[in-house]
Structure formats: structure tokens, C-alpha cells
Amino acid sequence: MVLRSFKPLVFTLCLLPLVWLLWKWTGVLGLTGGGGLGANPIEATNRFLGDWALRFLLIGLAVTPLRLLTGQARVMRYRRMLGLFAFFYAGLHLASYVVLDQFFDWAEIWADISERLYITLGMAAFLLLLPLALTSSAGMIKRLGAARWKRLHLLVYPAAVLAVIHYFLMIKADYTQPLLYACILALLFGLRGIGRGHHARGRGHP
Amino acid sequence: MLIKRWDPSAPKPSEITPKALWLDRRRFLAMSAGTVAAGALLGPSQAWARNLPAYREGAVTLDEDLTDRDSITSYNNFYEFGPDKSDPKRHAAGLVTDPWTVTIEGECARPGVVDVDALMARHDLEERIYRLRCVEAWSMVIPWVGMELGPVLKAFEPTANAKWVEFTTLFDPEQMPGQRRDVLPWPYVEALRMDEAMHPLTMLAVGLYGEVLPPQNGAPLRLVVPWKYGFKSIKSIVKIRFTEEMPRTTWNIQAPSEYGIFANVNPRVSHPRWSQRRERRIGEFQRRETLMFNGYEEQVAGLYAGMDLAKWY
């Protein structure tokens, strides 16, 4: 009963980046002294939302390793919410590109997707996350069946890899940040493998 | 042949800077003794310690709104001070720009070392309002103060072999924290073909918005080539070398398929990362069309007559 109350807290924490961004925009628009987002607020917004989409993707992917390492199954109850927030920020990232950055210039957007590999891969990552978000409800799990649902949701792995490559390719120089994300992703994959190994052995020799 | 190095009509340094100020500056220099710490302590305006001499206002104007000074001085690509565009303003304030000398080398009759103050005294300074178009598809309109590059170069008497001019930025990881990692192949090098360097639009800037150039904008001396992408306009220059061979330049070494040696603004030649068809003018919401040669087509197109600009991007 006590644990259930953490969900609203986690939900609120996940919204904080968006709240911060909206506060900054009230400054950009001159509504408040909200500090603004520098000389190029559109670029800053797009980067900020992309950063948080990737961060939530990694946070979501950290839940299972955390369970495997700690044996605390209750962390799993936050996984869906974190995954949906990753999709939420990825969607906002895409929306800021289409609306703020390109202002619905579909010809230019299509040229970007087809000609620029980092945008192609970013879009692919988003499209991989889309069915996962759509099938996140308990009803959809039931309808698909647990096994099929699980198989479908393996798409989160290629999506995360594509998202990190998307970040790599948009950097002109200094790959520190995308390297950091790549290392975290590799670590999460590794922990999953190790954790699974322990788990399997544990089950084999009760 | 003797090349006139002093323009008799130009004001003497003593006419430009009042002696009290001038002495004050020397005193300040002696006091700070070129330490970064002193610069940081005393704040940027004192650390720059150079007064902008008199200049001709409105020499080149533009019927477009100026980008505000705050944006010009807080949104900079100057990787020597960090890869983020907000880094230079934060990390460049302590850059010691006085004294500052430029070494002249290569294919010229009068190589040597010149002081920036001497350059500023020797050549006419004027205000020129230029568009600046970054390869990242954003742009600004900037009121520079500086001198035309051509007469500066002629004074060093380039030889017939001088086909290119290469410029080098200061390499000093102590002062330039971005250089402590191999983010780019340091020092930063840029180059112009001789006719581009001699073009009357090409300038060496020493000031911005009527004041001495802030460090994050390339103090004390930077190149401004308004029809090329911004990365060609190299900052904080310490060396000028005349060469016969085409020099290798920093971004071209980093990613040759992305950054060409000419890097002329061209909306018809797409960059692998950015469509160059349109640009975001800083301060505006919607993108605007990018102009051929950044709007300087009439003046500079002749330099590239007969060249395939898709090949020589």
C-alpha cells in the first residue's frame, strides 16, 4: 500500500523536464522572466527533448537489470510508465522538429528523412517505439498473448541502438555525450546478460 | 619596389587614443602581467584592455535588422573554448589579447611579426554590416568594425608564387580549455585563395557593435568572409602564411565530404547534415530562403566563373 503511492511521485518527476522547458518558453515569449533558451530557442528545444527521450529510453531499459541485480520485482511496476515517457518525449522531439524547426515544410522534411542518415535513423527509432506505446495497455497484452507481446516489445532494443546512432551522427565533433549514452546502453545490455545468467543458474539449482 | 606601409591620411595612433587611456592600458598590462587569473578577476571589459580606434561608420550597410548584441556574443561556434555554443562566452573572458602579434610567413617579400595595434593604426578601420551564415543553417546580421584584408596582405608583398593564404588560430590549451582534448586537429587552420583574400568584401575584424571584439567572437583579430559559411571566418589569428599549394584546413581534415575548401554559401548544394536551402535568422521564428553566396552573388560570383560549385563545395 505504501509502495503504490510512489507511482504519482515518479510520474511527476518524469514530467519535470517538460515543466522546465515550458517555463523557459514563457521567458522566450516574454510572458515571464523565465530565463529563455538562448539565442536559438528552437534548436535548444529540439536538443533538450531529444536528450530526454534518449534518457527515458535508457532509464526504462535499466528497470529489468535492476530487478535482476537486486531481486526486487516491484521495480517492474514502473517500467511501463518510464517506457511511455520515453515515447512521450520522443514524440515531442519529433513534433518540435516538424512544427518549430521545419514549420510543416513536408517537402523539406521528406528530403531530410530520405537524404540525411541521422534523421532516417531517428525516424526509424520513433516508428519502432510506436507499436510498443500502442500495445502498452493490459488489454493489449491480453489480446496479443504474453509471448507475442514480449516478442513485439523486443523492438525496444533496436530502437535504443538507433537512437544512440542518431545522436552520434548529428555530432560534428566531440563525441563525448553520445559515447556516454552508448556506454550506458552497452552496460545495460551487459547487465541483462549477466543477470539472466545468474537467474538461469539459480533456477537450475534451487 | 617599396610598398607604402603608412597611409599619410590615416590618423596616427596618438591621435586616436588619448594618452591617458593609452598609459592606463600599459599600466594595466604591467599589472596583470598577462595572467589569466587577473583577467578573470578584473572582469572581461578590463581584460581585453584595448580601445577601438576611430573608425568610419556605415561604410557597408545592409537594409536588414541587426541581430542583437547579446545573441552575437552568446551563441558562438569557437571549439577552442568548448563544443557547445554557450561555452565560448563562459570560457573566453580571460583570454589575454593584448599584447598580440601575428606572424607572417611563406611566399612573401616581407615576412615577420606584426603587432595588432600596429595593424589597426596602419589601416583604415570601418564599420561593415554583413550577413553571417553558419553551415548549421542559422544566420545573423552583424555590425563588424575592421579593415579590408587586401591592403593588409599587400603590405607583406606576396610573391608570384603566393596562390593561397593560410590563417592559424592561437594554440594555447592553458587559455583555451577546448584544446585540451583532440576534438578537432588543433590548431585551427583556414585558408582563402589569393583572389578571395584580395576581394574588397573580405575583412579582418577587430570590433563589434562599435566596441572592441569580445574574446568569444575571435578577439583581437578575426577573418570575416561574408559569402562563405561561418567556419571559414577564422578567429583569434596568430599566423598568416602565403602558400603555393592549397592548404589543408581544419574542418576539411575533420570531415572532407562535409566541409569543402571553398565553403561558399550555396542553397543549391545540400550538406550531408543540413539542407542549405533555407536558414533560421537568429531572432526569427520561421526559416528564410538562403541566398546564393549569402546575398553577395553580384560581387563575388566572378571569382568562381566556370567552376563546378557542386564539386568545389
Task: Report what the structure shows.
The complex is a heterodimer of chains A (206) and B (313). Chain A is mainly α and 206 residues long. Helix content of chain A is 78%, strand content 0%. Chain A is built from ten helices and no strands. The radius of gyration of chain A is 19 Å and the shape is globular. With 313 residues, chain B is an alpha+beta fold. In chain B, the strands form two sheets. In chain B, strands 1, 4, 5, 8, 9, 10, 12 and 13 form an eight-stranded mixed sheet that branches. In chain B, strand 4 and strand 5 (138-148) form a beta hairpin. The longest helix of chain B has 14 residues, at 19-32. At the A-B interface, helix 5 of A face helix 5 of B.
Average residue pLDDT of chain B: 88
Shape of chain B: globular
Class computed from helices, strands and strand pairing of chain A: mainly alpha
Full CATH superfamily name of chain B:
Oxidoreductase, molybdopterin-binding domain
Helix-strand pattern of chain B, N to C?
Answer: HHHHEHHEEHEEHEEHEEEEHEEH
The tally of strands of chain B reads 13
Q: Please give the radius of gyration of chain A in angstroms.
A: 19 Å
Number of folding domains of chain B? Answer: 1
Gyration radius over CA of chain B: 19 Å
CATH topology-level fold name of chain B: Sulfite Oxidase, Chain A, domain 2
Strand content of chain B: 15-25%
Main features:
heterodimer; A: 206 residues; 10 helices; disordered C terminus; B: alpha+beta; Sulfite Oxidase, Chain A, domain 2; 8-stranded mixed β-sheet; 5-stranded mixed β-sheet; 21% helix
Short structural description:
The complex is a heterodimer of chains A (206) and B (313). Chain A is mainly α. Chain A is 78% helix and 0% strand.
